[in-house]
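User: Can you recover a sequence for this backbone? Please restate the input before giving your answer.

Assistant: Of course. Working from this structure:
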C-alpha cells in the first residue's frame, strides 16, 4: 500500500500524542504489573522446561514429533517474554530487563537479544518505512514495487509468487533467525568495527553457545541421529512459522511512509499498524501483539495493560480523525498476502 492514504501534518499535531499519553497515564496503565508478570514467567518457563523434560523422558520414539510441535509453541511463548523484556515492560530498570531478555532470547530460544533489540528499535522508530524499517527491507520477500523491480534471478522468481510462497517460506524463518544471530555476534565492518552494537557481546556468545550445546546434546542423547534431525526440523520449522504468523498481521499491507511524508509520532505509529480482534485466546496466541497500535504508541506498556488501553486509544483516534485499523485474524492475513501479491504484479505482467 502506498503512502497516498497518509494525511499531511498540521500545526497543532505536535501535542496530540502528549494528550493521549496523559490519558493513558491517568488511567494507571503505565504502572508495572510485577505480580502478573511473575505468574506469566513462571507458567511460560515452567511449561517450556516441562516440555524438554518430557522430551528427555520419552526417548527414542516417534512420539517425539508431536512433542516437537508442542515445543515450537512453548519456544515462541518464551520468545514473547524476550520481546516484553526488550521493551522494559516487565521492569523499569535496564539491568533486570536485559537479564530476562538474555535468558529468554540467547539461552532458551537461541536468538541474540542484542541483535533483536537493535533491529526491533529501528522498526519501532520508523515502522513500515522501506528505507528505515529493517522489517520491510528487501530480502527474501519484497514489499514495494521498487524492491520488486530490483530483483534478479531466483529472487525475481520468488517475488512473482511470494504471496503463495509466504507461509512455506516461514518454515525457514527459525533457521534464518539463528543464522542472523550468529552473524550479528561475529560480523565486523571492513574497518574492524562490530556491525551490530551490543552491550553484552561476550555474555551473549556464551549463552548462545550453551543453547546450541544443550539443544543438540539433549536431542542426540535421547534420540537416534535421524529422529533428532527430524525433531529439530519440525521444531524449528514450526517455531519460525508461528513467529512469522504472530508478526505478519501487524504492518504488512498497511501504508508505507516515504521521506516525503511528514508525520508526527501519533500518526506515524497508528497509520502504519493494524490491530487484530479476538478474545483472550488471541491475546495469548499472539503475545499481545494483536494490540499493535497501542504497543507501537507505548512500547513499554505492560502486555496485560494493552487490552485496557485500546478503548482509550481508539476513542482518541476517532476524536482526532485518525484512521484506526482493526480486523479479524484471517482477514489480517488476507490483507498482508494481497499486498505481497500486488507488489509482485508488475513482474508477472512481464
Amino acid at each position: 500500500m502506498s503512502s497516498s492514504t497518509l494525511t499531511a501534518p498540521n500545526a497543532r499535531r505536535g501535542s496530540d500524542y502528549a494528550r493521549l499519553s496523559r490519558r493513558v497515564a491517568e488511567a494507571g496503565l503505565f504502572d508495572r504489573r510485577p505480580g502478573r508478570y511473575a505468574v506469566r514467567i513462571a507458567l511460560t518457563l515452567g511449561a517450556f522446561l516441562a516440555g524438554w523434560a518430557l522430551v528427555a523422558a520419552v526417548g527414542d520414539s516417534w512420539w517425539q514429533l508431536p512433542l516437537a510441535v508442542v515445543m515450537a509453541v512453548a519456544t515462541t511463548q518464551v520468545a514473547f517474554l524476550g520481546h516484553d523484556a526488550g521493551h522494559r515492560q516487565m521492569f523499569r530498570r535496564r539491568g533486570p530487563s536485559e537479564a530476562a531478555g538474555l535468558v529468554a532470547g540467547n539461552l532458551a530460544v537461541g536468538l541474540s537479544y542484542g541483535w533483536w533489540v537493535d533491529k526491533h528499535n529501528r522498526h519501532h522508530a520508523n515502522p513500515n518505512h522501506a528505507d528505515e524499517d529493517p522489517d520491510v527491507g528487501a530480502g527474501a520477500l519484497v514489499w514495494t514495487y521498487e524492491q520488486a523491480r530490483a530483483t534478479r534471478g531466483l529472487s525475481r522468481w520468488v517475488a512473482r509468487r511470494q504471496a503463495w510462497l509466504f507461509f512455506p517460506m516461514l518454515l525457514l524463518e527459525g533457521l534464518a533467525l539463528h543464522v542472523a544471530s550468529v552473524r550479528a555476534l561475529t560480523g565486523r565492518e571492513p574497518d574492524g568495527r562490530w556491525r551490530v552494537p551490543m552491550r553484552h557481546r561476550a555474555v551473549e556468545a556464551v549463552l548462545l553457545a550453551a543453547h546450541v550445546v544443550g539443544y543438540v546434546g539433549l536431542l542426540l542423547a535421547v534420540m537416534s541421529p535421524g529422529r533428532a534431525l527430524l525433531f529439530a526440523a519440525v521444531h524449528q520449522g514450526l517455531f519460525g512459522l508461528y513467529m512469522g504468523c504472530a508478526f505478519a498481521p501487524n504492518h504488512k499491507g498497511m501504508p508505507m511512509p516515504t521521506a516525503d511524508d511528514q508525520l508526527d509520532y501519533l500518526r506515524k505509529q497508528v497509520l502504519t499498524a493494524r490491530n487484530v480482534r479476538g478474545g483472550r485466546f488471541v491475546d495469548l496466541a499472539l503475545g499481545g501483539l494483536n494490540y499493535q497500535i497501542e504497543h507501537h504508541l507505548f512500547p513499554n506498556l505492560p502486555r496485560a495493560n494493552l487490552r485496557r488501553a485500546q478503548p482509550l486509544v481508539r476513542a482518541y483516534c476517532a476524536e482526532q480523525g485518525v484512521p484506526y485499523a482493526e480486523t479479524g485474524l484471517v482477514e489480517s492475513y488476507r490483507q498482508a498476502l494481497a499486498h505481497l501479491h500486488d507488489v509482485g504484479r508488475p513482474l508477472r505482467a512481464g
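That completes the design. Residues 1-5, 7-13 have pLDDT under 50 and may be disordered.
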